[in-house]
Design a protein that fits this description.
elongated, five-stranded antiparallel beta sheet, 3 helices, four-stranded mixed beta sheet, alpha+beta
């Protein structure tokens, strides 16, 4: 083992640039970890019978970054994880491209798998990010996030 202790990292990025699974995975790689778990959310080409051509994301960045930091802290309280990366795309995201990548490294797979699942569920419920679906027939629709805590019940 190396004599230098590697400090845990939380890497949070909101960007209009195309996301790279390889880049995010590399950021959480550690010689003391035997697992890296990833969640990659991509734009699908359909919703309720409509052809989706892209998604558009907006976020209130100061609050979004703060909420993601809280999620990282929660992960560290619940599981023995090493590094955490949460990258979210803003602006237009074409079909099949990633809108979010969450990566977590840990010594063993259970911790990172559970942490990634918790992270995406909590992000969708608490982080102020809005999604607009752009349809082929020139219409669009802002989507209500069912998991979001401030959404009203029907």
């Amino acid at each position: 083992m190396s004599g230098v202790e590697e400090k845990p990292k939380d890497i949070i990025k909101f960007t209009a640039e195309k996301l790279s699974v390889d880049e995010v995975s590399h950021l959480v790689t550690s010689p003391v970890c035997g697992a890296i778990s990833l969640f990659v959310g991509t734009t699908r080409n359909n919703f309720e019978g409509k052809k989706v051509i892209s998604l558009e994301y907006e976020a209130y960045l100061p609050m979004a970054e703060n909420e993601v930091r809280k999620i990282c802290n929660d992960l560290r309280q619940k599981w023995p994880v090493r590094h955490i990366a949460v990258f979210h795309r803003l602006g237009l995201v074409p079909v099949s491209e990633a809108s979010i990548i969450i990566a977590v490294s840990s010594a063993h797979r259970a911790a990172s798998l559970e942490a990634v699942s918790y992270a995406i569920d909590t992000l969708k419920a608490k982080v102020p990010i809005w999604k607009k679906e752009m349809y082929e027939e020139s219409s669009s629709s802002w989507k209500r996030n069912k998991e979001c805590f401030w959404a009203t019940s029907d």
